[in-house]
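As agreed, record copied across for absentees:
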Amino acid sequence: MKLLEADYHPGQRIYWTGRKSNPDIGKQYWYQEIELLDIDELNENTKIDVAILGYVCDEGVRRNLGRVGAEQGPRVIRERLAKLPIHFEQTRIADFGDVICIEEDMESCQQGFSQIISKLISKKVFPIAIGGGHDMAYSHYMGIKKALKNSEKNKVGIINFDAHFDLRPVERKSNSGTPINQIITDLKKTGETVDYFAIGIQQQSNTKELFNIAKNENVEYVINFDCESSASEMLAIQEKLIPFIANNDYLYITIDLDGFSSAYAPGVSAPSPLGFTPYFVFKMLRFLFASNKVISCDIAELNPTLDRDNLTANLAAKLVDFIVSLK
């Protein structure tokens, strides 16, 4: 599969190591279970359920004047995930490697990434993408839409766990703050619309302009102060999500790690103490996956250069592991 000017590396064993276990009791850890594949090896005879795909790019963060380092995220997530014990059964998981940004050419990286996402979904493989900047969301969503273009059911709603709307207009070049705006703009060109629900929005992290764009584009959102794990608050958010889920054929879930409180996720470009907890997100994911409409997921913005004791990397790895358990 020739990617458009993007650099692609298949899954690498070097990232998947861990402690030895008794061979008599079978595979115990992720590093023992994961398969390593090249996207060109994926065909009708390849029986893979879940794909790990890396977006090795933080050019969008740099353009957005953020702190770079997220390009190292996919490598470190794999290294932490490799050491986790496995509890899933009869699920075949493969690491399909990375799409890598060359110099500052984020657009080619996005095109190549979108191609692979489209092929995975077309082959009935569930992608879990790991980044990398949140500009990944634009190419991820467009890859999903490409895979569904000939399907009668092709309405895909976006659910974003994030402190930011990611609705910034593109001025000179796109960046990590523009992906949802790009999606909305691109779909309008073909007369389409997209349902967008943002969870965890922080007023201090978004300008009045962005709140106005959200209003004008009929964006639904939940403020961070309402993102608690109590039964009543969880139920209130779920009730808001029920008509959103019903109105879409599929759901694309994107998780920006800067939406979490910095107590749990210090290793991001824009940490905040006012974010949500892992327990909140895990419970919400269980609710969303119960709809049987989730078609793809990604986890963005891990910056290992800013992490502390691998807290953020471990959280990202456990999110991947939890998502697999829901499939």
